[in-house]
């Protein structure tokens, strides 16, 4: 019985948070804020995926099986999904690869959709980095990521 007021407070707080999220999403959709990119039609997404698949990677410079690069791409996505992107996890997963390996990771990341209660967008790895880290308090890590990934030659193409 002593915990009943606490339980009621937690339930009321969760309901209030849920209502806030719904109201926020309503205004986000109404005024178009919170996302720099509008979702592309399915045919455009398929075109972007096709373009990403055509990226040439010098396979002679790849030191690991393809599964390692796919796993790295998936870890980068996981680090940026959910509440609070993990900039340090993205930085750690970006270190230790040569330019060809980074290009392969970029290629395997492809064009993905990100959905969260604050910000929906889709794009390649650099669009994700830009959306998640190109602002305070992650600006320094964003610049570190830029230095690492510039080796691919794709960094400026965030669209």
**Helix-strand string:** HHHHHEEHH
Average pLDDT, rounded to a whole number, is: 81
Structural class: mainly alpha
Strand percentage lies at: under 5%
Task: Bin the helical content.
Answer: 55-70%
Assembly state: single chain
Largest beta-sheet details: 2 strands, antiparallel
Please tell me what the overall shape is: elongated
Radius of gyration: 19 Å
Question: Termini, distance in Å?
Answer: 56 Å
Q: Helix segment count?
A: 7
| Low-pLDDT segments, ≥5 res | none
How many DSSP-defined strands?
2
Estimate nothing, just give the exact number of structural domains.
2
- The strand order across the widest sheet is 1-2
Describe the structure.
With 159 residues, the protein is mainly alpha-helical. It is 59% helix and 4% strand. Strands 1-2 form a two-stranded antiparallel sheet. The protein starts with a helix and ends in a 10-residue tail after the last helix.
Which key phrases capture this entry?
mainly alpha; 7 helices; two-stranded antiparallel sheet; 2 domains; 159 residues
Reconstruct the topology from this structure.
Elements: H1 4-31, H2 42-53, H3 66-80, H4 87-94, H5 99-109, E1 112-114, E2 121-123, H6 125-133, H7 139-149
Antiparallel strand pairs: 1-2
Helix pairs in contact: 3-4, 3-5, 4-7
Short description, anyone?
This protein has seven helices and two strands; from the N terminus they run αααααββαα.
């Amino acid at each position: 019985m002593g915990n009943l007021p606490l339980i009621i407070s937690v339930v009321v707080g969760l309901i209030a948070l849920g209502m806030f999220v719904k109201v926020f999403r309503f205004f986000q959709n109404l005024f178009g804020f919170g996302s720099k990119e509008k979702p592309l039609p399915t045919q455009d997404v398929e075109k972007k995926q096709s373009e990403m698949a055509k990226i040439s990677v010098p396979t002679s410079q790849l030191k690991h099986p393809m599964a390692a690069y796919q796993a790295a791409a998936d870890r980068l996505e996981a680090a940026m999904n959910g509440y609070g992107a993990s900039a340090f996890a993205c930085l750690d997963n970006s270190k230790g690869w040569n330019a060809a390996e980074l290009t392969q990771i970029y290629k395997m990341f492809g064009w993905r959709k990100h959905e969260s209660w604050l910000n929906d967008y889709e794009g390649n790895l650099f669009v994700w980095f830009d959306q998640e880290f190109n602002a305070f308090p992650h600006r320094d890590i964003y610049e570190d990521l830029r230095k690492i990934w510039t080796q691919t030659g794709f960094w400026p193409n965030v669209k």
